[in-house]
Write a structure and sequence with these properties.
Oligomer: single chain
Distance between the termini: 24 Å
Strand content: 15-25%
Number of domains: 1
Strand order of the largest sheet: 1-2-3-4-5
Length: 150
């Protein structure tokens, strides 16, 4: 995978070679994020209950500490992804984008936890909703090359 001064540009093969590690990190993020949501709901419910006894305050403080620790773990996971050159786009779904280039255009190769391989892409100014199968990109690149007479 060629590296530039700013960030790596992944070929489809590079992205798929990196995927086992990315998958593991994304799974950790999704699990931790789900736990944080649950703990946050519990804390808000206790705070909204109006109970101000010592046991409730201790429990709220304990939950706040758990939230801080979980957020710190997620930050660490995001840093790991960043060091690999990829970006987390959605911690709830485990959506990750790999920077790439196609026909001179910067694009994202797009993968979501649960998918077997990196097989979609979208433009830098687009989102997950706009993603298309990689094979459509390959076909478009072939047509462009044929039009140029290559």
């Amino acid at each position: 995978m060629p590296r530039t001064a700013t960030k790596p540009s992944f070929s489809l093969a590079d992205a798929n070679r990196t995927l086992p590690l990315v998958r593991s990190i994304a799974q950790d993020i999704v699990t931790e994020f789900g736990h944080l949501r649950s703990v946050g709901r519990e804390r808000r419910a206790l705070e909204a209950s109006g109970a101000h006894d010592d046991a409730t305050r201790r429990k709220v403080d304990e939950l706040k500490g758990a939230i801080d620790e979980g957020a710190s773990r997620i930050d660490g996971y995001i840093k790991e992804l960043s060091e690999l050159g990829v970006e987390l786009k959605d911690p709830e779904r485990g959506l990750v984008d790999f920077p790439s280039e196609r026909s001179g255009r910067a694009v994202w190769l797009c993968w979501k936890l649960g998918e077997d391989a990196v097989a979609h892409w979208h433009g830098m100014d687009e989102t997950y909703i706009d993603r298309r199968p990689v094979d459509s990109l390959v076909k478009r690149e072939r047509r462009a090359a044929e039009d140029k007479g290559e």
